[in-house]
TrEMBL record:
Protein name: Pseudouridine synthase
Domain Pseudouridine synthase RsuA/RluA-like: 97-242
Organism annotation: Cognatilysobacter xinjiangensis
InterPro entries in UniProt: PsdUridine_synth_cat_dom_sf, PsdUridine_synth_RluA-like_CS, PsdUridine_synth_RsuA/RluA, RluA_PseudoU_synthase
PANTHER family linked to this entry: MITOCHONDRIAL RNA PSEUDOURIDINE SYNTHASE, PSEUDOURIDINE SYNTHASE RSUA_RLUA-LIKE DOMAIN-CONTAINING PROTEIN
Length: 289
């Protein structure tokens, strides 16, 4: 039997936390202690509106004594959450997967100050399916293709495409010229967390990130590149282009030339053999740089 999970509210799924005896005298005390960045009034409001649930799905009383701990579900909210004006396009949907063309500026999943207006929440509302999970992610500042699993029983079969590198992903980017580089070039490096958050950086050590970089078009001041991530590390393509000496245009985090427009990076195409029926699947983003 599948584990209980509360339904999504307005496209936003419930978060889960395991409380322990000693976290606090009451459920309200315990949650305030576990999440000190959320003030007590906010937690009290969530309790009063039935947005904090026990493992059985029943609303919890904020002042109920926490004797044994246990599983608690709660719904995250962000006051004055910014919204993305860009619209996503649903390129493909069947019983098992959805392929969505995401605009620049839209987060894929809830994180930080983005909860309700994310690609995942929009898709939950649009399809009326609570159990949706992204099979991979792209940055909020990146436009292009994202694949979602719509059914738990086939989820691992599609996740294996990424885990076993049986899916080809191609990105396009605009960046400055690299006249001294022999293309295509394979960039291999070790990526670790950098400063400031959420930056990544390259360091000495065994490579955990591999990208293939080629040139599509050579302009006067900006070249168009084809980028293929062999691995899927956070910010991998952005760091690798910066490491080659030409950060992507609009990439303020890694030194790219600033512009009024978005980061000039698009997840342009994906190709794979469907693990369920063996069909060759090819999808292309409509976003142009």
């Amino acid at each position: 039997m599948a584990a209980f999970r509360p339904p999504a509210l307005d496209g936003v799924g419930a978060s889960r936390v395991q409380l322990r005896p000693g976290d606090g005298a009451t459920y309200l005390d315990a949650l305030c202690a576990r999440f000190p960045s959320v003030d007590r009034a906010t937690w009290a409001s969530r309790f009063s509106r039935g947005r904090v649930l026990g493992g059985n799905g029943h609303a919890l009383d904020a002042q109920a004594r926490l004797h044994t701990g246990g599983e608690v579900f709660y719904y995250r909210e962000v006051i004055d959450e910014p919204s993305c004006a860009g619209l996503e396009t649903l390129l493909h949907v069947d019983d098992d997967i959805a392929v969505v063309d995401k605009p620049h500026g839209l987060a894929v999943i809830p994180a930080g100050g983005f909860v309700r207006d994310t690609l995942l929440a929009r898709l939950v509302r649009r399809l009326g399916i609570d159990d949706i999970a992204p099979l991979h992610r792209i940055d909020r500042d990146t436009a292009g293709l994202v694949l979602f699993s719509l059914r738990a029983r086939s989820r691992d079969a599609y996740a294996a495409l990424f885990r076993e590198r049986r899916i080809r992903k191609r990105y396009e980017a605009l960046a400055g010229p690299l006249p001294g580089v022999a293309f295509p070039v394979i960039r291999e490096s070790r990526l670790v967390r950098g400063e400031p958050f959420p930056a990544m950086r390259e360091m000495e050590g065994v490579a955990n990130a591999i990208s293939v970089v080629d040139v599509i078009e050579r302009g006067d001041g900006v070249w168009r590149y084809a980028l293929e991530p062999v691995t899927g590390r956070k910010h991998q393509l952005r760091v690798h282009m910066a490491g080659l000496g030409s950060p992507i245009v609009g990439d303020r985090l890694y030194g790219g030339a600033c512009s009024d427009g978005p980061l000039k990076l698009v997840a342009k195409a994906v190709e794979f053999e469907d693990p369920l029926d063996g069909a060759r699947r090819v999808f292309t983003s409509a976003f142009e740089l």
